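Dear support,

I submitted the protein below through the web form. The confirmation email said the job was done, but the results page showed an empty box. After a refresh the structure appeared. I'm attaching both so you can tell me whether what I see now is the final result or a partial one.
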Amino acid sequence: MILLRDIRLAPGEKETRLRQKAARALKLRPEALGEIKILKKSLDARKKTDIHWLYTLALTVPDEASALARCRSAAPYTPFSYEIPAARSALPPVVVGFGPAGMFAALLLARAGLRPVVLERGDDADTRRAAVEAFWQGGPLDSESNVQFGEGGAGAFSDGKLATGTHDSRIPFVLETFHAFGAPECVTYDARPHVGTDVLHRVVKAMRREIIALGGTVRFRSRLTGIETESGALCAVTAQTPEGISTIPCRELVLAIGHSARDTFAYLHARGIPMERKPFAMGVRIEHK
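What the results page shows now:
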């Protein structure tokens, strides 16, 4: 495949025109092009008299070398793909937290055949949503299941905006996974991908169903309370559940606890577990008189 940048469409112009415009840029007949995939779509509004959509495409052509030589906006393209190796473990790994990081960790572990156990201190998406909406109407705050804690993580109520300032080859895998579980296809290529809270709730529930279908377990209302070691190695974790304290033997532990589980951070610090700050960028506004 090759990558083709800067294909323009006017507002209202149909995307079926992309094939013809790509062929023109490559000096080929439209029927000579094979598969065409949209990689990115952004609005160029730098000139108010010339507002247009800009597309980046991946496409197959009969002779890549010739096409690359003819078109300066074309480049070689190799799609990134995950190869998840089959794995074995005497004990299922434990994933703490079922926000974005925890969901993807559990999903890949489940696809590798490791039957992960997920501990989420909040509720499932439907129960959580009802509690949050009741709170917004003046109801009581549930300290364990709210806009910060529960299935989907803190972003579940942010209207599903998928933004990142990084350029990482793994990002398409994340966006394509959301699409595979029910998000609209446009999230895989829009410059500012947006799922929407209603759709996002369906997506996270579909991801949970696949994890369970692959042998994983998702336990809601289960808050990490302890990490047990033996001869310096992890041997189990404990969790507060509706039935009381539960002990789960494990050798691998993923802590995907977000930024609001202060009690967990305090516990980890007291245990002497190394932690480091996550860097972040801050903008400032300066007004001059």
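Response: this is the final, complete result; the empty box was a page-load delay. Residues 2-76 form a domain with the Alpha-Beta Plaits fold (CATH 3.30.70.2700).
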